[in-house]
Design goal:
The complex is a heterodimer. Chain A is built from eleven helices and 17 strands. Chain A is α+β, with helices and mostly antiparallel strands. Chain B is built from 16 helices and 18 strands. Classes of the chains: A alpha+beta, B alpha+beta. The interface between A and B is large, with 81 and 90 residues.
């Protein structure tokens, strides 16, 4: 199935409901085959859907179609002195829809939070085939239930995202990335980075702001290799992208209160967000932590699954969207 | 069973759970709980209960559920949308005795609190910790509604409250790591914990801002954020509101990351400056803009200088950089007391809470003034400028027949205009009772039906804060 418009998408999902066909929505497909197992009859290919990008530089809001490549969007924004403050793994291979559907975030979430938090409004087709819109393209909105937050991170099990209004940010005056030795958590926090990520035994710290702010933080952070501007962005993208790690045949995400995030097992490739208490590992997770397998596919242990199942039935009563993934 | 007998039976059993002093039933006591911060609305509860723990809250909710009585949560009752008013009677569950900070976990940068903890207590506690055990990294809780010295975390969660710092730090929902809630049946659920992420559907996101219509919040795990070494306040005067609005956009577009950006119009400044929180704000300006930036000592200074320069270039007629923390604190306290200070310019007010795209600011404020003026009412404006959240305060005198109704009508007209300008009917105060008939301006029938289906899944007997949100 390859719908070409929101209306065709709604129609396709309506038909799937009638025929009992189970669908897996896919834009660029970087995460379509990661995460908990899914039973489906057909991929719902969204690549032919319209790809609109409308940037309101003054309001700091961008309207984006779901299958627009997030890297393309970032480049378009940078030309205008703006950006998405997001740095999830597989960034360059992802669509905005895919990042929202999985709520994939990177180390900058320590300051800027997750895609779900930056989502202002979303247009969706529900599992029942209904075209709906939730939220408003403004920074604050509490009218009715916060449905957009349910959709973000639902891994395509509630609705297919058609279009999103995202909060965007101005480019800071100065950006620096410091590659340095790993630090204890307390010391790391005192350095006040915008994000921190560990990969292969190296700690990368990102500093942003006016020039004297960045210089002050760098001098407090001590020895290491410093990159600025374009070079800093390039390095940061390369590390947070984690393309090599995400190509591993075994990949698991570990989530813990930050102070009890375990060390990576020796010799295992990893990407670790120490400030957030999150780590991706190319191997078996340490015991006693919450672990969510991305590859091979394994069912996730989800708390309050009964409440989530009720929500799933409301959006997708016949279970046509990505069945099995969540709850 | 007759209504009276049901209530007596409920009260008797509630006393067994909560003790003699944990249940109020007398007419004179009920009177106190008729209203919240929404001056234009009243509703009489049948009984008020005061649980002390999650378990007591669960038991008393279960009891009310079994008797089929409406269940209305109440913190400090500062809701501005009628959220805590028992419009259909029933049991008001007060969190006044669930007021303990259970844990401050600096290692994981979270605080664990009972629902009835007053927002500002968390910061007071953190400040005291810094004093008693010199921790070299100070912490703060950053969701700071204007009511924070009074309003509770439970109420903040129910309304997904904003505040002045949310331009940088987000609103209440962005601060939550975990919730303990009581479902209508009395079942206790723990959602999330001290981890940054909870997999699966965002139940915390759904419950936050659901205004007590799905479940009651008993405890919360909130993130606390390290404070910076320095913060600087910039105060700017403008001759007209639209120039001020454009200056706000220019500051944001510069890449500066202010913590807060607040705009007050002349009437709002006059009110504040007439009261005990007067901070020397300029009374001769059409608009006063307050901005706070933070960072290292040199960083905050440079950012403040940059912001000040942008403001001058954008047409401010006076810009003052306030580095003295005591003076800055006074200025921000003045802003936060703006609603309370309205008494100095008018006896009663209706406060609205629309959000609009920032560039429509001048237009929206003109519309707000006009909506008041044509009904013979004055409108003061305070405004979270960074995020486009308007708070027109429509002044009226309830002793004058018809003024209250006209004020409500003017408010509705302003909110409808906000939606037409591309915004929303409520940015941070909630739909509650006051704005429920405006919800269809935002959402079509099917979208509202989906929300109601979620409501029905949580609360099939429709006992949780009935008469709210949905038209």
């Amino acid at each position: 199935m390859r719908p070409k418009s929101a209306e065709e998408l709604a129609e396709a999902i309506n038909e799937a409901n009638k025929e009992g066909r189970r669908l897996l929505p896919v834009c660029k497909g970087s995460k379509a085959h990661l995460g908990p197992p899914v039973e489906y009859d057909e991929e719902l290919q969204l690549g032919d859907m319209p790809k609109a990008v409308e940037v309101d530089e003054e309001e700091m809001v961008a309207r984006v179609s779901a299958c627009v490549g997030i890297d393309e969007l970032q480049k378009e924004l940078r030309k205008r002195g703006r950006r998405l403050a997001l740095d999830p793994p597989l960034f360059r291979k992802s669509s905005i829809g895919g990042v929202l559907a999985t709520n994939f975030y990177g180390p900058m979430a320590y300051r800027y939070m997750t895609p779900r938090d930056q989502l202002l409004s979303v247009r969706i087709v529900t599992g029942e085939g209904k075209l709906m819109k939730f939220g408003a393209p403004v920074m604050k909105d509490v009218a009715g239930y916060n449905i957009k937050r349910l959709v973000a991170g639902s891994w395509g099990t509630l609705a297919v995202i058609v279009e999103a209004y995202m909060r965007i940010y101005a480019l800071p005056d100065s950006v620096a990335v410091l590659a340095t030795s790993r630090r204890p958590l307390g010391e790391l926090r005192r350095l006040r980075p915008a994000g921190a990520v560990e990969s292969d035994g190296v700690l990368y710290l990102r500093f942003e702001g006016v020039k004297s702010e960045v210089e002050y933080r760098l001098s407090a952070a001590g020895r290491g290799d410093v990159l600025y501007g374009e070079e800093a962005e390039e390095k940061w993208a390369e590390v947070t992208e984690a393309e090599g790690l995400f190509a591993s045949s075994r990949l698991v995400k570990v989530v813990a209160p930050p102070a009890s995030l375990p060390e990576p097992p020796p010799g295992v490739r990893h990407l670790r967000y120490p400030l957030l208490g999150v780590m991706y590992l190319a191997g078996e997770p340490p015991s006693g932590v919450k672990a969510y397998w991305l590859r091979p596919r394994r069912k996730w242990e989800v708390e309050n699954a009964d409440l989530m199942a009720k929500i799933k039935r409301i959006f997708d009563p016949n279970g046509v969207l990505s069945p099995g993934r969540l709850p | 069973m007759a209504v009276h007998a049901t209530l007596n039976a409920f009260a008797k059993k509630a006393r067994e759970i909560l003790g003699e002093g944990g249940v109020l039933l007398d007419e004179v006591d009920l009177l106190v709980y008729e209203q919240d911060g929404t001056l234009a609305l009243r509703g009489r509860a049948d009984v008020i209960v005061f649980p002390r723990t999650t378990e007591e809250m669960a038991k008393v909710v279960e009891l009310a559920y079994n008797y089929g009585l409406p269940i209305v949560g109440r913190g400090s009752g500062t809701s501005l949308s009628g959220g805590a008013v028992p419009v259909k009677g029933g049991v008001v569950v007060s969190t006044a005795r669930m007021n303990r900070i259970l844990e401050i976990d600096l290692d994981n940068e979270v605080a664990v609190v009972q629902a009835g903890v007053v927002n500002d207590w968390i910061n007071s506690y953190l400040a005291r910790m810094g004093y008693q055990y010199p921790i070299d990294l100070g912490y703060q809780y950053t969701a700071d509604p204007g009511s924070q010295r009074v309003s509770t975390i439970g109420g903040n969660i129910a309304h997904n409250s904003g505040g002045v710092k949310c331009f940088k730090y987000g609103v209440t929902v962005n601060q939550l790591r975990g919730l303990t809630v009581v479902l209508p049946t009395g079942e206790v659920r723990r959602i999330g914990g001290k981890e940054f992420e909870q997999v699966g559907y965002d139940l915390i996101g759904l419950l936050t801002g659901s205004e007590g219509t799905l479940a009651l919040v008993a405890e919360a795990i909130v993130r606390i954020v390290p404070t910076y070494e320095s913060s600087v306040t910039i105060l700017a005067k403008f001759d007209d509101l639209s120039t001020a609005g454009r200056a706000v956009s220019a500051v944001i577009a510069s890449g500066a990351m202010p913590v807060a950006m607040e705009l007050m119009d002349k009437l709002a400044v006059e009110a504040v400056e007439s009261g005990p929180y007067a901070a020397g704000l300029p009374k001769d300006a059409e608009a006063v803009l307050l901005i706070q930036v933070e960072g290292s000592l040199p960083g905050a200074k440079e950012e403040a200088a940059k912001v000040a320069e942008i403001l001058r270039r954008s047409g401010a007629v006076g810009v003052e950089v306030v580095e003295d923390p005591a003076k800055a604190a006074k200025i921000w306290a003045a802003r936060k007391q703006a609603f309370g200070a309205m008494g100095f310019v008018g006896p009663n007010y209706v406060v609205e809470d629309g959000t609009i795209p920032r560039k429509k600011l001048a237009e929206a404020l003109m519309l707000a003034r006009a909506a008041g003026a044509k009904r013979g009412l004055r409108v003061a404006n305070v405004f979270h400028a960074g995020d486009g959240n308007l708070h027109p305060l429509i002044l009226y005198d309830e002793r004058k027949p018809g003024e209250r109704e006209r004020a409500i009508e003017a408010g509705e007209e302003i909110l409808e205009a906000c939606v037409e300008l591309g915004g929303t009917i409520t940015g941070e105060h909630g739909v509650g009772y006051m704005k429920k008939k405006l919800l269809p301006k935002m959402y079509k029938r099917e979208e509202i039906e989906l929300m109601k289906a979620i409501k029905a899944a949580f609360d099939p007997k429709e006992l949780m804060n009935p008469g709210k949100i949905f038209p």
